[in-house]
Design a protein that fits this description.
By secondary structure, this protein is mainly alpha-helical. The chain is built from 22 helices and no strands. It starts with a helix and ends in an 18-residue tail after the last helix.
Amino acid sequence: MLPFKALAWALEVPWGSGHLAADVTCWSPGAQGVAKGCADVVQKLTRMVGKNVKLYDMVLQFLRTLFLRTRNVHYCTLRAELLMSLHDLDVGEICSVDPCHKFTWCLDACIRERFVDSKRARELQGFLDGVKRGQEQVLGDLSMILCDPFAINTLSLSAVRHLQELVGQETLPRDSPDLLLLLRLLALGQGAWDMIDSQVFKEPKMEVGLVTRFLPTLMSFVVDDHAFNVDQKLPAEERAPVTYPSTLPESFTKFLQEQRMACEVGLYYVLHVAKQRNKNALLRLLPGLVETFGDLAFGDIFLHLLTGTLALLADEFAVEDFCSGLFDGFLLTAAPRKENVQRHALRLLLHLHHRVAPAKLQALQKALEPTGQSGEAVKELYSQLGERLEQLDQQKPSPAQAAESPALELPLPAVPAPAGL
């Protein structure tokens, strides 16, 4: 059996350098497929493992160890991708002995469809309930597979969709078996690191308040949206002077700060309203994300998804209130202490700077200026933004050119009317 150093050499990764962690970070939900570099890593591992069960077990142990050392959830993605790669090659020698194979296969189908329907939910529940006494260690691998950001993305968005359906059905979250299962899977995925680190293989208990208080609050937000939209569609003479709610319940923000499950679902609800181009709901929710459990709202995965989705709201960047709510009320609150937030804000401005009002753009440019301690990535992005703004200024007509009347606007000479016949 190869030692860890030999395995790292086979991956062409210097031992202890952390390069593998850098390679696999290109896995992120919302990307257009798996990046070539990551696919190459999976292919290398697949070729190296072949049909050797012992070598496969060793690779899994290697990934568990890296996950524990770095807390990098992309090693969880690599664990699932490797199994699915072997499944695609029909390597029965390994797939038949990995107790997570069918579960991962079913979950992979859900990820591809971006939704967990009732049929697949029952299948996943069957796999969980089928873990026998004495085989609880399987929960460790299942939790690692569920910790994959792609899986978290699919489960969270499915939970949000279920909440919307429950509003139409006038059903409470606690009465929906499918929703409760999604929460159970989310809890298992989020507890992966703790479970593997402690070697206590038990499903984490779900907080009662999550189901009885937090999720109904999210449903009330959905009702607020529906009520406001219906009112706006009424004829002007029948429309009441209704304003969109701008405050958040204190209990809601407290859940975001204290419970990871609530925070995860809440963040994906924010992504949902952004995809729906619901600027009112987005501006209402953003202040509640300034302080969240483990600063999840300022993590790369959420910010990557959010900034990508904000392109759908490009026209709103010309509005002062929207820019202030997004930048001043959210991103800039963490940019001075979190360089990754500064990077995401600069990338966002690089794409949408031409939409932002000049005065606001100048203020944002000053607020995002790198310091001496800033990394090269931030300095490069800031330099690119400066170049874009210079190009934008050069494209504007000079005051002298603007004062000149275009040729087509010169007054026409008077022409006498033709004499009558």
